[in-house]
UniProtKB/TrEMBL annotation, chain A:
EC number: 2.7.13.3
Record organism: Leeuwenhoekiella polynyae
Catalytic activities: ATP + protein L-histidine = ADP + protein N-phospho-L-histidine
Taxonomic lineage: Bacteria, Pseudomonadati, Bacteroidota, Flavobacteriia, Flavobacteriales
Keywords, comma-separated and alphabetical: Kinase, Phosphoprotein, Transferase
Protein name: histidine kinase
Record carries keyword Iron-sulfur: no
TrEMBL record, chain B:
Keywords assigned: Phosphoprotein
GO biological process per UniProt: phosphorelay signal transduction system
The name this protein goes by in its record: CheY-like chemotaxis protein
Tagged with keyword Manganese: no
Native source organism of the sequence: Leeuwenhoekiella polynyae
Entry coiled-coil feature ranges: none
Pfam families for the chain: Response_reg
Domain (Response regulatory): residue spans on this chain: 2-127
Modified residues (4-aspartylphosphate): D57
Keyword Phosphoprotein applies: yes
Length: 704, 134
């Protein structure tokens, strides 16, 4: 190494150990430039004078390892003793110095370097001219991001002259939000040859943001370039188009997702059927279970629809028809779904179908709704046939009237449009209170809030027979409340009316009887309470109806028994008996009750009825009678006793008297000892008298 | 013929004796004031062949008419071959009459007072059927 040449070189130069980066020698220019004295320099390493981060240092190390001979290391920020940052372009070559492997580094300040531009070769100029016509922006930046070169095309592309880029920080043009990722790319390219920078926004001369796509190429090693080539292209238009495309595809995705739409693409020539993810869901299949041929589609079809749909597909391939159809598919789990399918056929020059792209949409819900409507319509028709009610539908706006056949059954023959106010009650029918009915319809129609119309009326047919009708209509209105339509049902309540009258008669009859008649529902809630019930229990019908019969008539003591009786009746059994019932005023009344369950026409148990009679007096009488009978029996017995005992006693003296008389007669009146016999007669008659008195006394005793 | 008048009523016994005396003076009347005495007196007639009629009252102290009859039955009527027993009572009680049927050997139930016809009937019984009781 020529030391003198080294020392006098006007370009700052220094020698450092490749391994340790220790500075081993400097020249005078370096001392001038970096403001360190030579002995100070020799205590430093390259790192001490490089205002670079580790990344830069490692790139230097890397370059040092690789290169042989003259080496361009790149542009580095170097730091003087005073802290001034200098941008230096570094060249050099490996040297052996003091038996150590070293690097002779020649540093030239970049600014000064540029001044030498005029010396560019003819070739370079040619390249520049070429690049002027390029749509790409080609520049060179140093490792810090400062432009060292810009292609002449910049003027046309960015509106900024190429010269104006030189020395400018490339990041100054970049959108703040994009600086981070572009900076990362710059760092990346220092260790790699080529980096594609994700699109970022850069400012043009009009201060507008443009989308830019850039490729960075590390050409730091190329002495001709000595930097990072930046190849940028304005992709604003294409980027916007792409974004638009993404938006469209997203929208399509949303549409297909929300509409349960699947997209398919059939390569007809090779029978290669491609489904999107939605399609698998529509057919209930897993992607791996799908063979990708049109037969896989056919396989999923409902047997009843398979032949037709396949034919439709063939027809549309032939061009005989469009492929717009519906079919059912059966999932592997036997679920049946309805799909709607549309497709377009792509043809080659000869008109042969080569491709078919289409969509499938799940329309099961819609189909089911349609089916339901059909069913509902059918049901409506059936109902009109099945019901005894006459169904009518009046289109008010057009004054047309639909009537179900039941009208004939009701009224014998065809009737006029009973509900059209204009024709109401025409032909052979005589409608009672016609005006009143028309008024009530008009009133209901005129009230925008009225949704129903109900009326009971009667008509006479031509035979003079009266039909009682219950008529109910639902009013359908537009949003302004105007009545458009009225749909209704008419019941013939003639039978009901008659039985009502009959019932009324029966009810009156019940009113007049002296027994209390009480009817309840199954819970024991009173729904009928006649006049006698009012008298017997003290509650008026008004008070009693709606209350529990047991609460009204039973004291707490026998409530439990009352519940048992209720339970019995609910089982359909009857109950007959007597009990002491409670009256409203708290007093009690002895009643004899006959309870029975009540059934409706269809033999359903609907309630209970009880007939009660007040037997308080009857019971008293009975008791008295019993008393009397008892007394009489006692008296009788006593009298018998008297009769028996006394008859003996009476007969004893009597027979004696009669005996004496017989004796006197036997002696023909001339009786011995007449005095004696007279005396005996006297004694006997007295004895008898005493006995008779005694009988009378005892009889008197009986009375008391 | 002997006639036993078994009755606690002394007046009746005197009337009856007197009537028997007036109607048939050949009849010997024996008055007994209760059944016990009647049995004793009748026992004295044991094995007698002459007809004996007993006019028996029902209600008597010591031994009443029913007990008398039972005793007599037990004693096999003292082997009297011509014994006629009549119940004579002032009672018209049906029950007494019914009860008398328990004793088929009673000839008749006579209600007091004893009449001339009753006595003649008894005499006839004895004369018409002298050997019936034997």
């Amino acid at each position: 190494m020529n030391c003198t040449l080294f020392k006098i070189n006007p370009i700052p130069s220094l020698i450092f150990d490749i391994q340790t980066l220790e500075i081993l020698e400097v020249n005078g220019a370096a001392v001038d430039h970096y403001k360190y004295k030579r002995n100070e320099f020799l205590k430093l390493t390259l790192e001490d004078i490089t205002a670079a981060d580790v990344c830069y240092m490692s790139s230097i190390r890397k370059a040092l390892k690789k290169k042989k001979g003259d080496t361009y290391l790149g542009i580095f920020a170097m730091q003087t003793k005073e802290g001034t940052i200098l941008k230096m372009e570094i060249n050099g070559h490996k040297v052996d110095f003091k038996d150590r492997q070293c690097f002779l580094m020649v540093c030239q300040e970049v600014k000064k370097n540029r001044e030498k531009e005029s010396t560019r070769s003819q070739n370079e100029r040619r390249l520049s001219t070429l690049m002027q016509g390029s749509f790409d922006l080609v520049g060179v930046i140093d490792t810090k991001g400062f432009y060292t070169y810009m292609s002449p095309s910049s003027a046309a592309i960015t509106g900024i002259a190429a010269e104006d880029f030189i020395g400018k920080d490339a990041f100054g043009y970049i959108h703040p939000d994009d600086i981070q990722h572009t900076l990362d790319s710059l760092k990346e390219v220092l260790t790699q040859e080529r980096v594609v920078v994700a699109p970022y926004r850069a400012k043009n001369h009009n201060d507008e943001w443009c989308w830019v796509e850039t490729v960075l190429k590390n050409m730091l090693d190329d002495p001709a370039i000595n930097g990072i080539v930046v190849n940028s292209r304005d992709i604003t238009e294409s980027f916007k188009a792409k974004e638009h495309l993404i938006e469209i595809s997203e929208r399509l995705y949303l549409a297909t997702t929300s509409a349960k739409m699947g997209i398919w693409d059939w390569d007809v020539i090779n029978d290669n059927l491609t489904w999107d993810n939605k399609m698998y869901a529509l057919y209930g299949l897993k992607e791996e279970d799908f063979t990708g041929a049109v037969s896989a589609w056919q396989h999923g079809l409902h047997p009843e629809d398979a032949a037709r749909s396949t034919q439709e597909l063939k027809d549309s391939l032939k061009g005989a028809r469009e492929f717009n159809t519906e079919f059912r598919v059966i999932w592997p789990d036997r679920t049946v779904r309805y799909l709607e399918a549309h497709a377009v056929v792509t043809r080659d020059k000869e008109g042969r179908a080569v491709r078919m792209i289409g969509s499938n949409v799940d329309v099961t819900d819609r189909k089911k709704a349609e089916e339901n409507i059909l069913k509902a319509n059918e049901r409506f028709e059936k109902v009109t046939q099945a019901t005894k009610d006459a169904i009518w539908d009046w289109d008010i706006a057009n004054d047309t009237f639909y009537r179900s056949d039941a009208f004939k059954t009701f009224l014998g023959e065809d009737t006029s449009r009973l509900f059209s106010p204009t024709a109401f009650g025409g032909d052979h029918l005589y409608v009672h209170d016609r005006e009143m009915i028309i008024q009530s319809i008009d009133k209901a129609l005129a009230d925008p809030l009225a949704t129903k119309w109900i009326n009971d009326y009667s008509v006479s047919d031509k035979h003079g027979k009266i039909h009682y009708l219950n008529d109910r209509g639902i009013i359908i209105r537009d949003k302004d409340g105007k009545a458009l339509r009225m749909v209704g049902a008419m019941s013939n309540i003639t039978g009901q009316k008659q039985s009502e009258q009959e019932n009324k008669f029966k009810a009156n009859l019940l009113k007049t009887v002296s027994e209390a008649a009480i009817a309840t529902d199954l819970d024991g809630v009173v729904n009928y309470w006649n006049k006698a019930a009012e008298t017997i229990f003290g509650w008026t019908a008004e008070e009693a109806i709606g209350k529990y019969v047991n609460q009204l008539t039973l004291s707490d003591v026998i409530k439990e028994q009352g519940e048992q009786i209720m339970a019995k009746l609910r089982r359909g059994e009857t109950w007959f008996g007597e009990f002491e019932a409670l009256r409203k005023d708290g007093s009690t009344v002895l009643v004899r009750v006959s309870n029975a369950p009540v059934y409706d026409d269809t033999n359903n148990l609907v309630g209970m009825v009880g007939i009660s009679s007040d037997i308080t007096q009857e019971a008293k009488n009975k008791k008295l009678l019993k008393q009397y009978t008892h007394q009489l029996e006692r008296t009788n017995k006593k009298l018998k006793e008297i009769a028996w005992t006394q008859s003996h006693e009476v007969r004893a003296p009597l027979s004696r008297i009669m005996g004496i008389i017989n004796l006197i007669e036997l002696e023909g009146g001339a009786i011995d000892q007449l005095d004696f016999w007279l005396e005996q007669l006297k004694i006997s008659t007295q004895e008898m008298d005493a006995i008779v008195r005694n009988i009378v006394d005892e009889a008197q005793l009986l009375d008391s | 013929m002997k006639v036993f008048l078994i009755d606690d009523d002394i007046i009746y016994r005197r009337i009856a004796s007197k009537m028997w005396e007036l109607i048939d003076s050949s009849v010997e009347t024996i008055a007994c004031e209760n059944g016990a005495i009647g049995l004793l007196d009748l026992e004295c007639e044991r094995d007698s062949n002459q007809p004996i009629s007993v006019l028996l009252d029902i209600n008597m102290p010591v031994l009443n008419g029913w007990d008398f009859l039972r005793e007599l039955e037990k004693k096999n009527f003292y082997q009297l071959p011509d014994l006629h027993i009549y119940l004579v009572s002032s009672s018209t009680d049906e029950r007494d009459i019914l009860k008398s049927r328990e004793f088929p050997f009673i000839k008749a139930f006579i209600h007091k007072p004893l009449t001339k016809e009753n006595i003649e009937m008894i005499i006839n019984h004895v004369q018409d059927h002298p050997d019936k009781q034997s």
